[in-house]
Amino acid sequence: MPKREIEGDWVMGWPDRKRPEIAAGKDADGRVISGRTQILEQEGLITPTNNYYIVTQLDIPEPVHPDDWSLTITGEVERPLTLTIEDLRKLPGRSVRAVTECAGNDEGFFDYEKRGVSKPSRRYVPDFKRRAALKAQGVMPTNDELAGEMGNTCAMSGGEFTGVPLAEVLRRAGLKPGAQWIWMKGFDNGRPDPTMQYRSMGRSDVKVEDPGVINYDKGLPLDKALDPDTLLAWAQNGEWLMHVHGAPLRCIVPGWSGNWWVKWLSHIEVTREMPPCYHQTKYFVYGKSPDDPNKPMLTAMGVRNIITYPLDEDSPLERGSHAIRGLAWSGMGGIAKVEVSVDGGATWNEAHIEEPRERWLWVRWSYLWQVDAPGAYRILARATDVKGRLQPQTPWNYQRKHFDGIVPSDVVVE
Ligand SMILES: Nc1nc2c(c(=O)[nH]1)N[C@H]1C(S)=C(S)[C@@H](COP(=O)(O)O)O[C@H]1N2
Ligand SMILES: [Mo]
């Protein structure tokens, strides 16, 4: 056999296959402040921590030594508590494997569906260096540039989180009758950058509210807070949380979009009314237009499903057999069925779903396609979750959150 060189990286002193890397945005000191995952390069279900996407709405706080940190629980509770990491680690814990997905992931596909703009590539990852340069010059990107700033399919990752159920901590504190909202507060602060919202809407001709300097916070409804899989987590993928992912402690809210997963948690206040969090009422909301008076907060994701192979740009394909592959997951836990069509939706075939089928993680699926005739093919895949929900669940909304539509792969076979 001819000996081939292994092209890629040196890992532990040995040549190794090329490994996917995070696309990182850095601050002026070279510290990573944002990141996007190369999910199409991922094998298996768990995204390695150093490839896990990173999104932050405000300024990343300076790290706090875990021994100098504690969590306070106040408000509508019988016994206000102050807990250290060691206190939390003495409680009955659990690990949960779940997809973290930014609410704006794949927002560009809304425009493809609604306005017939050309299909975005799932391989598109924004150029954070260009973004940093524009920001340094104080230049506002154009609407077109804004539309491309989120990237596609790269603000989602799958991880294993270890911590203690939030319900367990609330039980120790003792909820008073009438307690309805669990207000989770991060110790990061800053003034929301209006470009974030312009980017989300894909337009910059709307007045965006300026709340001044705020802390990042969200008010979790009691039901979801008491779900045993909603965690206060100090570890991810078998090691302590990294600072960029919210160390020493963050929330894990499986099935609900990333913005609920409050990082750098320092204070929980239990309230009767929904707390007035800026990101809950002004940013992570549905609504038909910026001045729609009805802007419900985002909660569970819909039914998500993406074809990872073949994509349009994998054309031309050779005649023969191809494993059509993808990932599917649901905001309400578990995928029941995935179907694939290779004739533009005229006929559907059930895909094979690979084990394990965990409720909050994605499943990998595949369908073996035998194609003998050259031509153009439209491949579609649709998922149904264990609650019987089909794609799509989420209608177009002005902030373009929670896209869960069916995106075809249009390929040519030669
Ligand atoms: N304290 C705090 N928590 C936060 C945020 C933030 O800005 N501050 N951003 C949220 C958003 S919008 C997302 S998508 C997730 C991203 O989590 P990750 O960076 O660990 O992937 O964190 C959420 N938690
Ligand atoms: Mo997000």
Defining traits:
single chain, 414 residues, mainly beta, Sulfite Oxidase, Chain A, domain 2, Immunoglobulin-like, 2 domains, 5-stranded mixed β-sheet, 5-stranded antiparallel β-sheet, 8 helices, 22 strands, 13% helix, 32% strand, binds the ligand Nc1nc2c(c(=O)[nH]1)N[C@H]1C(S)=C(S)[C@@H](COP(=O)(O)O)O[C@H]1N2
Provide a descriptive summary of the structure in words:
The longest helix is centred in the N-terminal third of the chain and has 9 residues, at 128-136. The two termini are 31 Å apart. By secondary structure, the chain is mainly β. The chain has helices at residues 85-89, 108-115, 128-136, 143-147, 166-173, 194-201, 222-225, 278-283, and strands spanning 8-11, 14-17, 23-26, 32-36, 71-75, 81-83, 94-101, 156-165, 181-190, 214-221, 231-236, 239-240, 250-252, 265-271, 303-309, 320-330, 335-341, 349-350, 352-353, 363-371, 375-385, 409-413. It has a five-stranded mixed sheet. The protein has two domains: 14-298, Oxidoreductase, molybdopterin-binding domain (Sulfite Oxidase, Chain A, domain 2); 303-413, Sandwich (Immunoglobulin-like), CATH 2.60.40.650. It has eight helices and 22 strands. The structure holds the ligand Nc1nc2c(c(=O)[nH]1)N[C@H]1C(S)=C(S)[C@@H](COP(=O)(O)O)O[C@H]1N2 and molybdenum atom (MO). The site of molybdenum atom has 5 residues, from loops.
* Assembly classification: single chain
The rounded distance between the terminal residues' Cα atoms is: 31 Å
Low-pLDDT regions = none
Number of helices: 8
Specify the biggest β-sheet. Answer: 5 strands, mixed
Number of domains: 2
- How many beta strands in the DSSP annotation? 22
**Cα-based radius of gyration, to the nearest Å:** 22 Å
Write down the secondary-structure element order: EEEEEEHEHHHEHEHEHEEEEHEEEEEEEE
Bound ligand species = the ligand Nc1nc2c(c(=O)[nH]1)N[C@H]1C(S)=C(S)[C@@H](COP(=O)(O)O)O[C@H]1N2, molybdenum atom
In CATH, the topology of the largest domain is named: Sulfite Oxidase, Chain A, domain 2
Mean pLDDT equals: 94
CATH architecture of the largest domain: Alpha-Beta Complex
Secondary-structure-derived class = mainly beta
| CATH top-level class of the largest domain | Alpha Beta
With strands numbered from the N-terminus, the spatial order across the biggest sheet is: 6-5-14-9-10
Shape: globular
